[in-house]
Specification:
heterodimer, A: 114 residues, 7-stranded mixed sheet, 4-stranded antiparallel sheet, 0% helix, 49% strand, B: 111 residues, mainly beta, 5-stranded mixed sheet
């Protein structure tokens, strides 16, 4: 079982460039999440998707867009990258509908915007 | 989601027990308490979850008093490999699907 897979693992962008971070999970989870983590800080929620076909803003959505392509895949797009978006991005998935709130995380994408 | 407060950092030594207390004064009736561990350059991973009293697994114990306004994660006999950031989360299905993390507690285990 692969769990949560993120691609790419590393990326360097120039200011103003765009890119899409991909995330896929094979656990048949309904909910998926995108976080960013700046050095020495906790995780901040960017967007989440409670179920296929729905997306909602998290704590820091500005500068990002998301697409819940199907139940497995949840992508994060930076339309015009800025140096302030340099961070490590984590995707996660979990199953809600029960009270078990365990979330599973990918290995992260380290993004540098120069 | 209920707001949580936990210490920013803690130091310990190998073989000692580490206890991290998390305050969550406005926890809702249906909320569960969940702890995650994060190593450098990795995503967080689930450690333990509880609703009330005490929960124990192979990694940790979670103590929850009757009023549920706080909880304590206990790591027995820590080793250097337990150096990590530990996050306390409070919520559940009733809170919707918004899973938010606070700043966590940075635990440093020294030899």
């Amino acid at each position: 079982n692969a769990g949560v897979t993120q691609t790419p693992k590393f990326q360097v962008l120039k200011t103003g460039q765009s890119m899409t971070l991909q995330c896929a999970q094979d656990m048949n989870h309904n909910s998926m999440y995108w976080y960013r983590q700046d050095p020495g800080m906790g995780l901040r929620l960017i967007y989440y998707s409670a179920s296929e076909g729905t997306t909602d803003k998290g704590e820091v959505p500005n500068g990002y867009n998301v697409s819940r392509l199907n139940k497995r895949e949840f992508s994060l797009r930076l339309e015009s990258a800025a140096p302030s978006q340099t961070s490590v991005y984590f995707c996660a998935s979990s199953e809600f509908g029960s009270l078990n709130t365990e979330a599973f995380f990918g290995q992260g994408t380290r993004l540098t915007v120069v | 989601l209920a707001k949580t407060t936990q210490p920013i950092s803690m130091d310990s030594y190998e073989g000692q027990e580490v206890n991290i207390t998390c305050s969550h004064n406005n926890i809702a009736t249906n909320d569960y308490i969940t702890w995650y561990q994060q190593f450098p350059s990795q995503g967080p991973r689930f450690i333990i979850q509880g609703y009330k009293t005490k929960v124990t697994n192979e990694v940790a114990s979670l103590f929850i008093p009757a009023d549920r306004k706080s909880s304590t994660l206990s790591l027995p006999r820590v080793s250097l490999s337990d150096t990590a950031v530990y996050y306390c989360l409070v919520g559940g299905a009733a809170a919707g699907n918004k899973l938010t993390f606070g700043g966590g507690t940075r635990v440093l285990v020294k030899p």
